[in-house]
Structures are given as structure tokens and as C-alpha cells.
Design brief:
Largest sheet: 7 strands, mixed
Helix content: 40-55%
Strand content: 25-35%
Number of helices: 6
Distance between the termini: 78 Å
Number of domains: 2
Oligomer: single chain
Length: 256
């Protein structure tokens, strides 16, 4: 084997080893960052089973991300993402601003507990809003392990979100599907956005689209409420009528 060939192979091996090392360190740092900063931002538990970023191709995946319930709510979790795929601009991984070409979340499980205007998701949004409004918190987020100072997400897509609606007036859980949520240009421009700011924008859109689909899905609110009351008590009396009327008013206000 000629010397130039040996040198070239040696450099290739070193490059591959370096890329593997970078991938391992980035994945570990990002996971640590999510689990340390996430609870401070949302004021809920945040668990991430694993993240895999491949610097050479720019591909990546997130496995089993679970955002818990804020204080005062009883369900097991608010949002559960079993798997999400990422496409990242490889050249941006080691820069201040990480450019994410796309994020695709397929079939997340969402629990909406409370009511249309006040629920666990709106409470998490309020918590995130308070965090992003604090200069001290923003600085802490930027300095945390794995948190890039700037972030740009060209496209964020959530498909087939499975929403379980738990409203006391319904009597029983309602299951609906939100077909697609698509956002573009998050953090576009030189300043970018922080992960907390991105979370806020995405959560706002999730709440908006979920609320719309829930309102549409009940359709004949009276029939749904009547069926719910029957399941609980067997007959529809004055209480059932009041629940039906209250539920109609709740959804009509939201639609106006």
C-alpha cells in the first residue's frame, strides 16, 4: 500500500472516530439538557428515553419523550411522544445556532384535562410563558448543558395526535384525533429562538388546533352529554339536562 493511501485511510479512520465521539457527546448532552431544563420550563416532570443524532447525515430521532402533569391535575401525563424524527443541518451542530430542517412527530398521545379554556395544557403554557419572560431564567437556559444559544426549526410537523379529553361535564373521556399541525420558520433570522421559546410557540399551536378539533368532534353536544350521563347514572334527569345545557354553552362560546 502506497504511503499517500495509508495516510488517506488513516485520516478517514480518525474522522470516523471523531464523528462517533461527537455524536455520542452531543446525544448525551442534549438528553441531560432536556431532563434538567425541561422541568424548570414546564414545571412538570420531563423524561427522555433517548436521542440519536448522526452528524454525518444530519438525521436524528427522539425516543419516548414524556411531559408530565402540572400541579393540581390527576392524569398520568400531558404529552407522550413515542418517536420523532429530525433532520439537522450537519454543519450547524457545533455552531451557536443549530439549524433543524424538520421535526416530524407521528401519533403523539395528549391528555386534555379540565376544560376548554383552563386545562393542563394551558397551565403548562402559562408556566412556559413565565419562564421565557424572565431574563434570569432565559440566561440559565442558554447556559445549561446541551442548550444551544440559538435554534432554528424550518418545519415542525405533528401528525395524527391522539387526544384524550377529560372534562368533568362530559362524564366519560372523549377520544379525538388532530390530523396535522404544521409550523414553519421557527427562529428564522439571525437571532433564532431558545428551546423554551420554541416550546411556547409549538404548544400554543397544539392547544389551538386541539381545542378546535375537540369543539368540532362533539358535534351534537346534547347527544354526547346525554349519553355520558346515562353511562354514569343510568337515567337523564335534571342534572343531565343542566350538564347538557352547560356543555352547549361552553362550546358555543368557544366557537364564537
Amino acid at each position: 500500500m502506497k504511503k499517500p493511501v495509508k495516510i488517506a485511510l488513516g485520516l478517514l479512520i480518525v474522522l470516523i472516530v471523531a464523528l462517533v465521539a461527537v455524536a455520542l457527546s452531543i446525544n448525551g448532552i442534549v438528553k441531560k439538557g432536556v431532563e434538567s431544563v425541561g422541568p424548570r420550563v414546564t414545571k412538570t416532570t420531563v423524561r427522555l428515553d433517548g436521542i440519536a443524532i448522526m452528524p454525518l447525515s444530519g438525521g436524528g430521532a427522539v425516543n419516548d419523550l414524556v411531559i408530565g402533569m402540572p400541579e393540581g391535575y390527576k392524569s398520568e401525563y400531558s404529552i407522550k411522544v413515542h418517536k420523532a424524527s429530525l433532520s439537522i443541518s450537519p454543519g450547524s451542530l457545533l455552531k451557536d445556532k443549530i439549524v433543524v430542517k424538520s421535526v416530524n412527530v407521528e401519533g403523539p398521545e395528549i391528555i386534555l384535562e379540565g376544560g376548554l379554556t383552563a386545562n393542563n395544557l394551558t397551565q403548562i403554557l402559562k408556566n412556559v410563558d413565565e419562564f421565557t419572560g424572565s431574563a434570569e431564567n432565559k440566561k440559565a437556559e442558554e447556559e445549561a448543558p446541551g442548550a444551544p444559544k440559538k435554534l432554528q426549526v424550518d418545519e415542525f410537523v405533528v401528525k395524527n395526535a391522539k387526544v384524550t379529553v377529560i372534562f368533568p361535564m362530559l362524564g366519560k373521556p372523549l377520544s379525538v384525533t388532530v390530523p396535522e399541525i404544521r409550523m414553519t420558520g421557527l427562529g428564522a433570522g439571525p437571532d433564532g429562538i431558545t428551546p423554551a421559546e420554541m416550546t411556547k410557540q409549538v404548544l400554543q399551536e397544539v392547544i389551538k388546533q386541539t381545542t378546535v378539533i375537540v369543539a368540532k368532534s362533539v358535534g351534537d353536544v346534547g347527544k354526547f352529554a346525554t349519553d355520558a350521563v346515562k353511562d354514569v347514572g343510568g337515567t337523564v334527569g335534571e342534572t343531565g339536562k343542566k350538564a347538557t345545557e352547560g356543555l352547549k354553552g361552553l362550546f358555543n362560546k368557544k366557537k364564537e
